[in-house]
Design a protein that fits this description.
This protein is mainly α. 58% of the residues lie in helices and 4% in strands. The protein contains 28 helices and 10 strands. A 4-stranded parallel sheet has the order 8-7-9-10. It has a two-stranded antiparallel ribbon with strand order 1-2. It is flat and about 130 Å long.
Length: 794
Amino acid sequence: MAKKKNKQRNNPSNSHRSNDEMRISVSMRKKYGTMAETDKYSRGSSEYRSLLKKMTEEVYNNNIHSLKNYGGKNLVERLKLDGPYRKRRLSAILEYVYAAAPGFAEKYPIISVEDEIVDFISELYNMLPMEYEHNNHITVAMAIFILDAIAEASNIDEASFFIPYEKDIISEVSLPEDFSDSVYDDDLIRGMAYLIIHRNDDTSVDCFVNTVTAKITVENGYIHNYRPGRLFTVDEPCSGDELYDEAQKMSYPERYKRVLSYIRPEIIERAVARYKNRINEIVDIFLSGIEPVVKQKQEQINRVLGVCNEIERYENMLFDARKRADECKGRKQKPSIMSIGNFNIDEDSEYDKVMEEAAAIIEKLKKKADIIDDVTDELESLDQCIFEHQFDIRNYLCSRDEIGTEIRDKEFVSALDSLRALNPFEVCFAYLYLLDTGDSSAWIMYITEIMLGAACSNLPWAKEFNDSLIDFIEERDRKEIDENDNNCEKFVPVPERYVEDRSEYWERLFTQEYTDYHVWSYEGAKRIKKSDLFHLNLSQVVYNASGICIPRKKFFEVDCYDDNGLKKAGFSAKEIPLLRDYLSLGAYASIRYGFDSVYKVKMKRTLTGTDKPKDDTENLKAKITSINEENASLKNQLYKAEKALKDYKEKVSAELSEQEADRQELIELRELVYKLQNSSGAEPEIEDSDKIQLPYTTKQRVVIFGGHATWLKAIKPMLPNVKFIDPYTKPDANLIRHADVVWMQTNAMPHSFYGKIMEIVRQRKIPVKYFAYASADKCAKQLAEDDMKIVTDQ
C-alpha cells in the first residue's frame, strides 16, 4: 500500500469556538515546505462541503490506484469499489465525516480531523462481509439474534410459520462444525439464515454488498413496524391455519419483513445505537492514538518553516553578494582614466571579500538544506507511523496481532480492550439492519470490517485450533520439552472468576478473559509459553469442549430464587451463580424452540385431507411445462457445447496449419544453412545449372523481397514475370496477396520489414523461400530449379 501523505493540521486557536461558529482549514495535500493553507470556510457551508467532497474523492481514487498497482483491475472488481459501489461508499464516508467532524475537532484541536478521518475510514483493501460469512457464519449469528429477540417478545411460535422449514430448501445453509444451539432447533436457525440470504430476492453470490443493497437509502429502505403476536392472545386470537396459509402466499422478502416485525423496537434501537457508538469509539481511539504523533509532526513542520525563512534570507544575501561581485568585476574590467598606470588593488580586495562572503552563505544554505532533508525524512516516518496505526486497530480487534511498538501504550491497549466486550450476535444483526434500512454506517467498509471482525472473533464457534498447540502435540511423542528453555516461563493460572453483577449477562459471556491453558495441560504440556496461548471467552470455552452454543441471556424464571434462600439451602456464595447458569441452560434445553407449531398444522391438514393435491390436469400441465422448459434449456446447452467444440476444432486446425508453416520455414532455413556450411567459404554450386536456361519464365506467381540495387538490376531480366519489391518499401498485404511463393534476399533488408513480411505470409499461408547466393545469376537459377521441381511434383 502507498504511504500516507502529509496533510495540514487544524489551527489550535479555533478550539475556543463553538461547533457552529468554528472555522477550519481543510487543506489538500501539499509537498513539505510549501504547505499553504487554503481559504477558511465555515463548517456547514457549501464551499466546505465541496472541498470535503473533493478531498474524499482524491483519497478514494489514490487508494484505488494503489490497489490496481498492487493486485490489478481484478482486485478492484473483487472488492467492489467501482460503479454503484463507489458512489455509495463515497456518500457514506462524506455523511459520516460531515456529521462527526465537529465533535472530534473540538476534542482534538491540533488534528485536522477531516483529513485523518477520511484517510482512516477510506481504506479500501478490506474483507467484505460475505468473506466473514464463508469463514465465520455471520448469517447464523444474525439468525440467532433475531430468534432471541422474537423469543424475548414471546412471538417465536407465531414467527416460525413465516420461516422456511422445508429441508431440501434450507439445507443450502451450512452451520458451524459440530454446532448445536441450546435454545433453538438447528433447522429453525437454518430457516432464519436462509431468509436473511434471500431477503432481497437477489440471485447474486453476495447477499450483503450487491447492486440491490447499494441502491437502498433511508428514503427507500426497510421501515420497522412492530407486530405483537396474536397466536395465543385472548382478545384477538389467530389460528395456526391462518398463519400457515398466509405464509404460503408470501415471497421470501415479505416473509423476512414479517419475521422482523415480531421484534420489539427498543431491542433494535439498542443494537443500532451500540453499533454506531462503537464506530465513534473506534475513530476516537484512532485520533487519540495519533495525537502525540501529530504534535511531533507539527513541531517538525514549524521547524522546517523556520528553516525555509532562513533559507530565503540567505538567498537574498547571496543575491546581493553576487550583485556586488559583478559590480566589482565591472569596475576592474573598465578602469577610469585616473587609474591608468596604477594597480586597482582596492577593487581586487573588495571582489575577493565579496566572493568569500558568498561562499560562506552557500555553505550555510547547504547546511540548511541538510536540515530540511532530515526533517522531511522524520515527517515521512511519522506519517508512516500514522498509516500503520490504522491497521494496528484492525489487527488488534480482528486478529489479535501485535501492535507497532512506536505507538503502543497502556491507554491505547486498554481502550481497544474495552471494545472486545461486545455481544457478537447483536453487532452482526445491527450491521444487517443498518444495511437494509439504507443507513450509511453500513457502507463505511473499513469500519464494517473492524466491527464484524471483532464480533466474529467473539463468536462461540470462531476459534480454530491453536497451531502452536497442534505443533506441541505432534512433537510430544518424539521428544521431551526442554524444562530449562529460556524462552519459556512458568505459567501462573488465572484464578476462577465469579461475576455477581448479572445485569449485563452477555458481557461475562463474551469478554475474552480466559485462555486455552486447560487444553495444553490436558495434552501433557509441562511448560507453556504465554505467547502460545489463545484468549477465549466463556461461550468459546463451552463450545470448544461440547459444540453447544450456550444461551445469550438468562432464563427469566431462574431469578425467582433469592440468594438468601439458596444460601440457607446449602449453596455457597460462589456456587449460586454457577447454579443459575445450570438452571438457565437446562430450562432452555428443555424447551428448544423449533417448527413444532408449523408441523402440528401440517400434520392436522394431512390427516384431515384439507391439504389436497392440485387437480390432475393442472399437475400434468405443470409437468409438461417444466419438461418443455428443461428440454429447451438442454437444447440451448447442447448448442453452446457444439459451438464451443466447433470453435475449438477451428482453433486447433489453425494452430496446426501455423505449425506446419513454421516447420516448412525451418526446413528452408536448415537447407540454406547446410548449403552455406558445406560450401568451403565459396558460394555453393547448383546441381545441373547448365540445364537451366535464363531468362526463365516461372510457372508460379512469385514475389521477391530484398536485395541491393545492383543485384535487382541484374536479376530482373533473368526472371521477367516475377514481381520484385524494393527492399525499403514498407511491406503490405496487397503486394503479395496473389503470390504462390515469396522469396527473400535477406542481405539487404531492414530487420523490422522481415518481421512484418513473415507476419503477412503466415496469415496468408504463403510458403517462403530464401536465396542462398549473393550472385544474381545463381539466385535466378536457384529459383528456377525450385519452380521446376514444384511443377513436376504437381
